[in-house]
């Protein structure tokens, strides 16, 4: 459908019309979701070049495509290119919408994820805390975007060895996910599994087993026993039972 629309728009309005460029950008999103990362990059770069020409570097559509390129580069492992895109998007969004706009905060959170992947844990923590404060102000403490950032902080604290802080974040996220999504939602079950991993690291083996068993029961119900996420929890239980001390 997008290809048909693109062909029609190019014929009717030319390659640089905003409707043409919007369809090019949508194709980039589709290709990314299909795992066709090179094709996605080609579409995003074409859309970006067109938006910059038509709207300028700080227009919402331009900045959205810059952010999309950052996400794509992160998926490709091009971490420096991803950082460059995120920082450009962040600067533009802060100028256009202010530091506390939810679109700005989304890019802040993306930077946190990138810094965590790069092992820049202090920088990641700063981004996550800024995003969390902004989301709490914009949407409240129980919004799913707020909770996702709480979970990100928990993962970061666990990586830093701050196990009590990680536990506090995980428990807050779990309580929020249960309220927002219910006890058997994927996000809830992933949080339960994360708590199991944390408790195992803390030597709280009974609590770890309880979390793993709860996660396993939920995943078997939601995804079947042979789903990879289910098998990950089975493996976690196996490791726990193999090393009970």
UniProtKB/TrEMBL annotation:
Any one Pfam family match given in the protein's UniProt record, by short name: TPR_12
Record key words, sorted: TPR repeat
Positions annotated as TPR repeat: 21-54, 63-96, 147-180, 189-222
InterPro entries cross-referenced by the UniProt entry: NLR-like (IPR053137), TPR-like_helical_dom_sf (IPR011990), TPR_rpt (IPR019734)
Residue ranges the record marks as coiled coil: none
Entry protein name: Uncharacterized protein
The species this protein was found in: Pseudomassariella vexata
Lineage: Eukaryota, Fungi, Dikarya, Ascomycota, Pezizomycotina
